[in-house]
Structure formats: C-alpha cells, structure tokens
Amino acid sequence: MKLVLAEPKYFKDSISIVSELVSEAKFKATKNGLKLVAMDPANVAMVNFELLSSCFTEYEVSGEEEEVAINLANLKQILRRTKGDDILSLETTEDNKLKIEMKSNTTRSFSIPTLEIDDKEQKVPDLSFPVVVEMDSTTLTEAVEDVSVVAESVTFLGSKELLCVKAEGDLSKAFIEIKNNETTSIKAETDDKYKAKYSLEYLKKMISGSKLSAKTTLHFNTDYPMKLEYKVTDRVLLSFILAPRVDND
Amino acid sequence: MKLVLAEPKYFKDSISIVSELVSEAKFKATKNGLKLVAMDPANVAMVNFELLSSCFTEYEVSGEEEEVAINLANLKQILRRTKGDDILSLETTEDNKLKIEMKSNTTRSFSIPTLEIDDKEQKVPDLSFPVVVEMDSTTLTEAVEDVSVVAESVTFLGSKELLCVKAEGDLSKAFIEIKNNETTSIKAETDDKYKAKYSLEYLKKMISGSKLSAKTTLHFNTDYPMKLEYKVTDRVLLSFILAPRVDND
Amino acid sequence: MKLVLAEPKYFKDSISIVSELVSEAKFKATKNGLKLVAMDPANVAMVNFELLSSCFTEYEVSGEEEEVAINLANLKQILRRTKGDDILSLETTEDNKLKIEMKSNTTRSFSIPTLEIDDKEQKVPDLSFPVVVEMDSTTLTEAVEDVSVVAESVTFLGSKELLCVKAEGDLSKAFIEIKNNETTSIKAETDDKYKAKYSLEYLKKMISGSKLSAKTTLHFNTDYPMKLEYKVTDRVLLSFILAPRVDND
User: Fold this and answer.
1) Which terminus of chain B has fewer Cβ atoms in its 10 Å neighbourhood, N or C?
2) Which chains have 3 or more CB–CB distances shorter than 8 Å to chain B?
3) Which of the listed CATH numbers 3.70.10.10, 3.30.2350.10, 3.30.450.40, 3.40.50.970 matches domain C131-242?
C-alpha cells in the first residue's frame, strides 16, 4: 500500500482527534479510501473515520483492500511534524513498518511498527435517529463548553423547532436554547420531545471535529446513542457514536 | 433584582480580579449601582467594587437596596463564558438562586446558588494619604513585576517629585525611579519622605486592575495602608486597600 | 567595569540560552569584548559566548581584562525584564555586586551578587572538523525536532553533498536528508562518509541559538565532538562544542 497526500491537514487533524479516544486502531485501505472504525477502550464511544481516495494524489492498494494497525499516539506525534506544504506519503514495508515520508525542501521519513490486532472487525451499527440538528460547529462547541462549567454530563432535549442543551451540577445549572435559524436546521420526526443524556468527557473530545469542518450534524433519540458527524464533501468524514448515560433522575 | 448589561466586559473582568482575593462576597444593589466591599480571608486586603447604574440597560431593585451573596470563583467561571456581544442579565429568583443569562444568537442561562453570609457589613475605612501618584497602569505593573524578580515585598518611597519602588531579596536588589512627567503625577503633602512596605503577593493580584483602566492611582503613607484605584468615569470603580508590612529592618 | 548596550537583545537572548546549559559562569571583559567560556556540569558540552565591543556604546574595562562570575539563572531572570528600547548597563561595584541598569522612561536598577569561582580557566579546545555544514538555522532546528519524536540521540552522517540526520528509538525511526542547495552548503574534506552520534537533550538546548542568527554552522567528525556556531558579524558569537555518544551499535 502506498498513499500520497498533497494536503496532509485532514489526515493530521483527524488522527489527532481520534487518538484522544482510541489508542490503537486498524486502518483499512479500500478502493474508496482509507477507513478506520474503532471503539474506545471503555466501549462507550465509536469513531468512524474515512479519508476519501479523491484526497490522494497517488493511491495504490494491492488486492481488494489492505489493513494496517497502528498505535495512534505514535502516529499523531509524527504527523505533528508535517508542515502545510509537505507532501505526505504512507507506505507499508516488507518488514511490517509503516513508512511516513514528508517532502518539501528536505525529505524526512519516519517509520513506525505496525501492530497485530486480532479483534473482530468493528462495524458501524445501524441506528435510527428521529432528531437531526445541522448547525455551525461553533454553536455545538460553545454549548458543550458552557455546560461543562457546571457538570460532567449533558442532556439534549429536541423537538420540532428547538434544541435545548442542559446540565445540572451539584450546585449550579446551565441551559442553552438553540433555535431553527439561517445557520441551524432542527428536524424531529414526530411532535414528541426527545431527551437523552451523554458524558461531557467524551463530547469535549468529539467537538474537536470542528477543526475539520465548520458545520456539524448531531443525531439523537431518547435514551439512545447519539451520532455526531463532521464532513467535508469528497474529502473526509469523521463521525462519532456515543452511548447514552441512563441514570436515576 | 434584575440587572441587564449590554457590555459585560467590566463586570466580567472585575469579578475575575476580585475572585483572586476574595472567595465569597455580598453584592449590594442600590439605586446608584451594584457594589461589593469585602476583605480577603487573611484580613490583609480590602476590595471595593462599584459598577455604576449607568452601565445597565435595565436596573430593577426592589426597595432601597437588595443584597445577594455569591461564591466568586463560581461566578467567575460562568462569566468566562460571556462573549463580547452578549447581553448579560443577572436576576435573583425565588428559590434563592442567581440566574445569569447571556443573549446573542442563542440564549444561554446559568443559575448558581446564593449564599447566607452573616458577617457584619464591611465599610471602606476613612484613611488619609499624603502621597498620591497618578500614572499609567502599565508603569505600576512593570515596576511590580520588576521587583517581584528579587523579593516578596516591596517598599514605596514617595516625595514631592519622585516615587521610588524598591525591593531587597536575600541576594539581589531592585530599584525603580518613577518621576513626575506627562503621564505621571506625583503629589506629596509635605517635604517629607514617605515610606511603606507591602506584600507583592497581594499587589500582583491587584495590578490586574489594569484590564479595566489604562490609568491608576496609588495612595500611601508611612507604615500605613495603601490604596490602589482603577476607575472608568460613569462606569466602574475597582479599588483596593492593602495593609502595610511592618518589620524590623 | 562599566558596559553599556543600546540593543540589549543579543545579551539577553544569549544568557537565556547559555543558562540552560551552565548555572554559574565567569565573564571576562577584554578590550575585544565580553566573553564567557564554560562547561556544563556533566562535562559534556562547552559554551563559548562573545559579545564584541562594537555592540557597546560605552565600554570601560580597567587594566587588560576584568572578570566577573555570576549565577546565570539569576541574571537571566533580571534580563527578562528588559524591553526592546531599554539602554542596558552592566557595572561591577565595590561591594562585589553586579549592577544592571535599564533606562527608558523610567530608570530601573538591579544588583546581584558576584561569585567566587576558583576553577582553572576554561579554554576552547583546538579541534579539526572535516565536515562543515552551513545552513538556515530553521533547517537544523526542524531536523532536531523531527528526530526528537522518536529517540534521545541523533546520528549525523556527512559526505561531500549530503547531510543525513537520523535517529532510531525502541520502536520508531526517523531519517532526514539535507542536500546542498541555495541555502545549504555541505563540505567534506575527503570522499569518506563521516558519522557521529550526539545527545538530543543537549542539542535541543543549543538550537535555541536560532534566536540570534538565521544561519548556523555545524561542524563534526567521526565519533568526535561537534561544534555548532551562531554568529552575527561584528556583534555576537555563540558556539557550542558537544561530546559524541559512543555506544555499542
């Protein structure tokens, strides 16, 4: 497998975000692009990352697909060394290494070991979400940071026209109303109110997806997982699934 | 009580500064404005804060005055979430909470508990200061940071034309001369030299008042408290009184 | 001794860099300039600093030369307080202090104790380097930071046209090729390949010399010390000698 990227930014930023949730993961290179599906170690969050083959200036995969498992913290540290105008190539070698080359004035190459991961393959589950909110990434980021001041979990309340983001700590409370407007589109399947609670520790990591895209889509359902998606057409998709917190209040 | 601020900056910055010195305090809303007078826990420093009623676009106080006691660290964390163009409102509720609302595109509201503080009321003492130095806030800030390199307390020496700021550590010494000029006005009542020593730990917190105003006024007297005042006409006053350090040198 | 600098930057930045390697050192003021030659406490690195007399607007030394030994961490902290337009003067006093004065609008003076250092005088050793690489400071800085991601020591491989910078950690490797081009001049005395290994902990401190000069010169030889030089003509010289790491691979 040899993959060459003229714009390393999407790959670099995505790995930086994913590595906060997952420490080791298996990349799969198919004819459509480079993919990664992984659970966090606590089995609370799933990451789905795709870098489409249209991002690459060279894209060689032998056979139908190739897999390579990597320590992401390791990969992230090396990708940090890429600069904006570097041409980045990723190549698996015969001695089970991943060779990462950065080319500009100088040629810099790194090699890191590939891993054996025997896990059964992770599949993105088929979920149904009656509430879908498309909004500026900053709107969600601000709301998550607001409620983080008072608590460690957040409740989303969605209806046809309104998304409420609320949190209640031991002493203090926070409540944010996000309405349908030019930049926000809130859709609910029925006239019901949908309500679910999620961990802010995880959400705070996920909203870093705003580095990739100025828009995000939040999907959820009552006492059900949520999905958060950052997407750049023809380039990259980074989406997260997060299990709900169900407790006795 | 319901108070609305179109420019939250003065309130936000003041609380951030005051919370470094005082952890819990009682605000008093009178017809002139919102006031706070508090001592630090060690009884070394007093803070006097006034946000004049002309700052507010809405200002409802029931009766002559209303009081509300708050944990300032708590309040500060929430005010950090205001952005420049937010309209900020503060409202006491029937269930003994302070509701803090920030309005721009979205409406975000926080509520924090009010406290019972039984302390007798703090009054700003009547002090007489023969030395008064009006100067750029940065002049004082620089001098305090200079002497902090060598020691933990500072001595002010004031006379008719000259303010000397000096400090002596175990090994090193620092000495700064500030003269009367276009930006600095030094006044002393008599031809005497006035001299007093203060804690730099406290002073370093107080000089953050430079966030509010580009000018500051320092008042002191020999072996006597000092007063440091940051003021924006018709808007805000933040002043500090600091007890002297009297030692055997 | 009284020395006055209109541009304190070179002195300030150099002391900041040197203080990372050496804690106490003896300055020598001769008619050519202010000099310092010192070993780090582990005897692995030598620093050679010269601030030429042409930098000074006033330069008084009594006799052939004067010496003054100083704690560099102490001096660094005080020099941090200089601003770009300060006129900086250094003066030894009769009570064995070094007086450091900064003059702009205000006059600020500091005094720190001078030390007794009985060490025999350090001399810059006479070394011969068949490989000399002149390059942009950032080229070396980037290469050192690249290899620091994977290991704690670096190997330089030099030949007539090419400098390779390589490092091998327990798991990962890095390899950078630097070629002769408009900004880089690589010279080797013979057609041999020269190879030596050095500590990155030290090198990372030395490359801060890039604050002084946009160009640097690296000199080395097989299993032999290296010399790294940052120079501003008629102003300042900061050079380092670093012992090689010789190990069993």
Assistant:
1) C
2) A, C
3) 3.70.10.10
Distance (Å, rounded) from C-alpha C22 to C-alpha C41? 7
Encode pLDDT of C42-55 as tens digits. Answer: 999 999 999 999 99
CATH architecture of the domain B2-113 equals Box (3.70)
Set of chain C residues whose Cβ sits within 8 Å of the Cβ of A111: 172-173
| A200 in contact with chain B, both atoms CB, cutoff 8 A | no
Report whether C117 contacts C24 (CB < 8 A): yes
* Residue B73 main-chain phi, psi, to 5 deg: -65, -45
Inter-chain CB proximity B109 and A146 less than 8 Å? no
Partners of A134 in beta bridges: A185, A217
| Cβ of residue B154 closer than 8 Å to a chain C Cβ | no
Q: Is B161 on the interface with C (CB under 8 A)?
A: no
ipTM of the complex: 0.90
- Cite the DSSP H helix spans in chain B: 9-18, 72-79, 137-148, 200-206
The SS3 assignment for B210 reads helix
Task: Please indicate whether the domains covering C2-113 and C131-242 agree at the CATH topology level.
Answer: yes
The pTM of the full predicted model, rounded to 2 decimals, is 0.92
CA distance C37 to C48: 5
Q: Considering only alpha carbons, which residue of chain B is nearest residue A169?
A: B112
- Is A175 near chain B, with CB under 8 Å? yes
> A168 and chain B: CB distance < 8 Å anywhere?
no
Q: How many CB pairs under 8 A join A and B?
A: 44
